[in-house]
Structures are given as C-alpha cells and as structure tokens.
Design brief:
This protein has a single domain (20-296), classed as TIM Barrel, CATH 3.20.20.100. The chain is 35% helix and 14% strand. The protein is built from 10 helices and 11 strands. The protein has a 7-stranded parallel sheet with strand order 3-4-5-8-9-10-11, with helices on one face. Helix 3 runs parallel beside helix 4. The termini are far apart.
C-alpha cells in the first residue's frame, strides 16, 4: 500500500523510538469475526485499509486473537507493511487445544514461541514492540501451578528477543506498580493496563510512566461489562458533555484520555467503519477547562 499523507489522528507520540498516531487501532474485535455468522474477511481488510487512509499507523494485535485471524487480516490488508506502520503484539497467553479458548503461556520458552508465531502470522521479521501480559492478578486469565513464573525470568527472555532483533521494544500488560518498578531496568517502552475516566486506580503507574517516558495504552478505556469497571458512556456528565460538543459519549471518554496525559495512546477496536471514523475524529475534540474539571471530578465516585 502507498504511504498515507493524512495527519496522524490525535497527534504523534514515540513508541519504542518510532512515531505513532496517538489514536491507533486494536484488532481484538477482528479476532471475534470468525464466530459471527456471515462475517467476511473482506470486511476486515476494508476496515484496516481505511484506518491507514485516516492516518492510523499503530496497530495492536496478538496471534491469539481469533486463533490467528486478526494477524492474517492485517497481513492480507497491509502487507508489505510500509516503514511507518508500527505493529505491537502481546504474549503471555495462547489458544488452547481445539480452539477451546485462551490459556496462560507464561513460561519463557512460551513467550518466545508466541513471538515467533506473531512474526509468522504477520509475515514480518520484527515487531515494533511486544507486551508481556502477566496473568498473576487483575482481570481475565489467572496463572496456577507452573504457569506462575518469576517476572525477572520473563524479562530475561524478552531482552534476549529484543537483542536478537525480533522485537523493537518491551511492554507490560496487567501489571502492578511494584512490577513496573521492578521491570524498569529492562527498558520498558509501553504499558497496557485497565484505565478510564471512571477507573483511575492505576494513576500511580501512569504517573511513573510519564516520568520515565513510557507510553500508556489503556484497555477498557470506556469501562467494561466486567464487574468493577464502570461504563464511562453511562455517566450523566459524559452524556451532557457529548450533547454540548455534538459528539458521542464514547468520543468524550476517549478525548478526555488524550488530554489527561501526553503519554496516552488509544487503541480502540471496532468492526464498524462509522465507529472507526468517530474514533479517529476524537483527536479533533478539544475539551475546555470547565468540562475537563467536571469530568476529572468523576474519579472515585464508583459509577
């Protein structure tokens, strides 16, 4: 594909030394396409190509999204990848036997196997960055038995992969403040933790990331159906702001994140072209000080 000349949505930030749009695209929902009746790969290909046309150059993916489907769609849509596209992946889990769902894959040799699987699935020799998804706490998969692995052992393998040129930078996902502090000597470039306007329990981690020049790409940026992750779009103050600005509540939630920290990278996923455009357009929304103050005050209200 030809390189786009569109301005980067949300502006640019550096991720593992490479400039990326602050509004990227997460492929997890593409990984769900195969289970939807009538889903066609052409839909995913068109969506990904349109994202590039809109200026997106940061794609967050994983080989275990749809048992390789998301990576296959990225490869089909965008390969050969032009130089400014940054592919970020995730390891720490894998598809279970018979596509029965995800299982932890925390052992160092499994992290390497998943990196190699991502490289093969995408058809590339190097990934811009890879997030080590810890499964020892938080939401989602939990490690037991021999899947409880020391973080330093995992980081040693990730450093080796970086030294070999297979990955450009090391990221962390689903980590505590203490784990992030422990990992800093490895040269962490990005963190993916749950975080939203209404769930700022990881604010100390974000502040540390800002001090260290580490990007922050939140999952659940608008909340979740999981207990304990309130939905941002349901807050009356968010809905009021959306009406005032003539945008959607989701756009208000994303715009607040962009203004909250210069290290913030957004990776919203969607299977809908209209929603994709809305997500990208979030970068044009400038919340005034009064609106920001109102939204800032929502933290800790338990909505």
């Amino acid at each position: 594909m030809s390189e786009t000349t569109t301005l980067r949505p949300g502006g640019e930030a550096l991720l593992a030394g490479r400039p990326v749009a602050r509004i990227g695209y997460g492929t997890m929902q593409l990984g769900e396409l195969p289970v939807h009746a009538g889903a066609e790969p052409d839909e995913a290909v068109a969506l990904l190509r349109h994202a590039v046309e809109l200026g997106v150059n940061h794609f967050d993916t994983a080989q275990f999204y749809g048992s390789g489907f998301a990576n296959e769609m990225l490869r089909r849509a965008l390969a050969p990848f032009h130089d400014d596209i940054v592919l970020v992946s995730k390891v720490g889990a894998k598809t279970g036997p018979g596509d029965t769902g995800l299982v932890p894959a925390q052992k160092p040799h499994e992290l390497r196997e998943e990196v190699d699987a991502n490289l093969a699935g995408l058809g590339v020799d190097r990934l811009g960055a890879v997030n080590l998804r810890r499964t020892g706490g938080g939401v989602g998969l939990q490690s037991v038995g021999d899947q409880v692995v020391d973080l330093d052992d995992q980081l040693a393998e990730m450093i080796a992969l970086r030294d070999e040129g297979k990955i450009g930078g090391i990221g962390l996902s689903n980590v505590t403040l203490e784990q992030l502090q422990q990992a800093l000597p490895a040269g962490i470039v990005t963190v993916q933790n749950s975080y939203s306007m209404l769930d700022r329990s990881d604010e100390p981690l974000l502040e540390l990331a800002e001090r260290e020049g580490i990007t922050w790409a939140p999952f659940f940026p608008l909340g979740s159906a999981f207990p304990g992750f309130p939905k941002v779009t349901e807050a009356p103050e968010v809905q009021d702001a959306a009406r005032a600005f003539g945008v959607t509540p989701a756009q208000i939630g994303l715009a607040w994140l962009l203004q909250h920290s210069p290290q913030m990278l957004l990776i919203p996923g969607t299977r809908n072209l209209t929603h994709l455009t809305e997500n990208v357009d979030t970068g044009r929304i400038a919340l005034d000080a009064a609106t920001v103050a109102t939204l800032d005050a929502l933290a800790g209200e338990g909505r």
